[in-house]
Every structure is written in C-alpha cells, then in structure tokens.
Amino acid sequence: MTLSMYVDAARWRAHQRAMLAEFPGLVPVAKGNGYGFGNVRLAAEAAGLGSPVLAVGTVREAVEVAGAFPGDLLVLTPYRVGEEESGLPAGRVVRTVAHSEALASVAPGTRVVVECMTSMRRHGVSRADLGRLPVGRAVLEGFALHLPLDRPDGSDPVAEVSEWVRAIAAAGLPTATVYLSHLGARDVARLAGLFPDTVFRSRIGTRLWLGDVEALSSRATVLDVTPVARGDRYGYRQHKAPSDGHLLVVTGGTAHGVGLEAPKYVHGMVPRAKGLARAGLATVNRTLSPYSWQGRQLWFAEPPHMQVSILFLPGDSKPPAVGDELPLVVRHTTTHFDRVEDRPA
C-alpha cells in the first residue's frame, strides 16, 4: 500500500523534447528529492535526451547519479575551501565557484564555472572581482548568472545579463559560455542576437520535469475505513466527530512530505484573504487536506501521522473501499513518493 506518482511517460518525454527545442543547449537539473522522481531516474532521462551536461545540487548528488549519467556533472552549490570531494568521477565534474578565495584553492586542472553576483544577491563574484580572479590554477568553462523569478521594479533581465557579459569581456575573460537560470526563451533568444559569439545555456529543472502537470498524477491508497457517529472520539487527541461519517486512513504522512508546507510569497489581496481564512480555520483544528474523493476535497481529521493521514468523510458521501486510491495534489519538490510508475501508453 503506497503513495504513488503515475507518469504518462510518452506525454512527459514529449514535453521534455519541446523544452529542448525551445531552449537550445538546455542543461537539465536534478537535485534535492529529484522533483519527486528521484535524481537517479532524472539522470537517466537526461542521458536519454542526449544532454552532454547534467546539473546537480551537491557533491553528494553528483556521486549518486554518476552511474546513471555518462556526461559532465555541473555541481551548482559553490565550492568551499577545504571541502571533501571523495567519490567524484574523475574528469567529469565541473565545480561552481562564487568567491576568489575558493577559486584560488581548487586543485590544479579543476574545471570551474564562476558564479556572478546578480540582483538575486545570494552569492557570486562582483564585477570589481572579475579583473583579479585567480584563474591560473583552474580550467575556466564559463560564467553563471542566477536571476530572480520576479521583477516588481520592471527591470529588464536581458539588460542585466548584457551588463555582465560586457563586464566579463572587459576584464579580459572568455565569454564563450554563459549559464543562465530563470530566463524565458524569448529573452535567451534576444541575448543570442546581441552576443552571437556567446553560447547561453539555460539550467532548467522544475519546468523541464514538472511543466506538463497533466502528464503526472498522485494517488494514495486507502488503508482503512471506519464509520463514526457525531460526537464519537477518535485519534491521538480524541477529537469529537463533527457529524456522522467515516474516518479514512490513507497512505501519505509527514515522512512523505504530506501536510508540510514551505513559506510562499503571496501576491494580491485575494490570496492574502485566503491565507488568513486558512489560518483562522487552523486555530480551531480545521485543516483542508490535499486528498480528494469523488471530486470533493477532504479535511484532515487530525494532523498527519508519520506515514499515514486520517481524513474525515461526511456521511452524505459513499466511502471508498480499502485498496481504492484517492487523488491528491502535492508539491513534487517536497514529496517523497513510495512508487513512481509509468502508465502504459
């Protein structure tokens, strides 16, 4: 009995091919929980796409996927001075460096991409650093620009990238390859027209693997169905049932990421009002679950357990049977599925 993600493999891969056509030179990204698929699965998919480079988040992830991907592995987390690098496949790893001190300390011959301090202001070298980068020890394979998702000030991302390309060239450094994150295909095409001697390579994960939502579906197995009458007590905290109905025990708990929520940036009055309403209901122990039955979104009967959740189904609905599957809507980047299965064509 599992928490499952089903994949329409033909449709999923067609979306990937469309992305490759939209972003020439695209670099697939496989990191974290592998966007719900697992990094090894995504590494094999990237190999099947013919990509010569796969971006991963950490050294540990590079070691994990090395056997499934035969090409180069670009580690996105910047190299730290003295960092342990055992287990990496020799000659196939490209390290990101974001500080002059880190670049000066890499082993001779290390392949590197230099991260620049964009308006994201997360990490990277400044424009003033460019002219004094100690590039002699390393093999410089390009520069990387990690850009913000939103621009409420109306600034032009193409202008920001252009300023960096010109600054890199002015410092006497090669501009043959620039890696980009969070830039649309139209803007990448504009940059290609402005700088025909530079190859712009988009690093894409979420949109590549999760961009066609109709190709993916999540399902939870019903493990138990228990009738309750109004006022019956149940669960760890012995709450009272609000009405006649059924308690559904289903797969998916905190170990899977169900019921856990990362902070979100909220735009506009309507989303803010909805957030306030959800917070108000939570104070009286009323929380909507991501699970549905017969088109009806269900409430958690109590907070999710480690590996299962208990849902309340009102008495006016016919309950599912043990072994049935309930659809649920979850955030793939924070969910650990028990099974990822391709649906037959």
Automatic annotation (TrEMBL):
Residue ranges of domain Alanine racemase N-terminal in the record: 12-132
SUPFAM superfamilies associated with the record: PLP-binding barrel
Recorded superkingdom: Bacteria
Gene3D superfamilies: Alanine racemase
Protein name, per record: Alanine racemase
Gene source species: Kitasatospora terrestris
Organism lineage: Bacteria, Bacillati, Actinomycetota, Actinomycetes, Kitasatosporales
